[in-house]
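Annex B. Sample input.
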Amino acid sequence: MLRSTVFVIQPTAEITLPKTMGRAVWACALGLIGGRQPDMAAALHDEAGLKPAAASPLQGPFTVEDERLRLRPGQTYWFRVSSVAPALSHMLESIEAQPPRTLELDRQRFEVVTVSSDARRHDWAQRQSYDDLYHATWQESAGAAPLLTLEFVSPTAFLSQGRAVLWPDARRVFGSLLQRWQAYAPALLPDDLEDAFAACLDVDAYELQTRVQRYAKGASRQVWYQQGFVGRCRYRAQRGTPEAVLRVVHLLARYALFAGVGSRTAVGMGQVRQIAGRW
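Annex B, continued. Sample output.
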């Protein structure tokens, strides 16, 4: 089961928080998981490289003042945690069935309003099986469209030889998604697809900007920065692209909602979704 679980919360008083809250959201998620299954939380924390989860930054009607977010009681804010692994998806389902009454973000207490993976309740909530995602893509009677658009909602970057790459070329974007699919999906895709992505897909249009994530880490609150890009990018398949390759591209584009793209997806980066229709 693939799961994107949205937590809607309210502060109990007027507060300020750091501008970049991805690490705090992930710490909160690990705390909720650890309260029910400590071994799972420890494994997620310690796992190097790819993780079966992604977490969003905090979202909502806050104001930004001197690199901090001001939140007010009575207003609702939200974040989400997504999973591409069965055990973690079942854990999120358990939290949704019996949500906590309160939770903490960066040592500040919030009341929990709702916890849901129901797409009818929130744009970023979703649950779907790997089989349903796969078969829905392969059963499109009209065939896979030659155009598709991805929206990069939080800063996205790819690490290459220790440097951040700030461009959504097809090889890196769909290669990142393929890597996660191969690591966690029950059925593997062909391993040689990255060359096909590079050969068959072109960036057709884009509206992108760079953003800088500012993180405070550890008890010393040491600050470090990570660049990324946000915005929209449309990809066009070249004439003659094999139908099977095009369908895999659409499959991975749908998978992006759950898996995230690029580096540091567990701490708020690489939140991506496909946009339907023409742009």
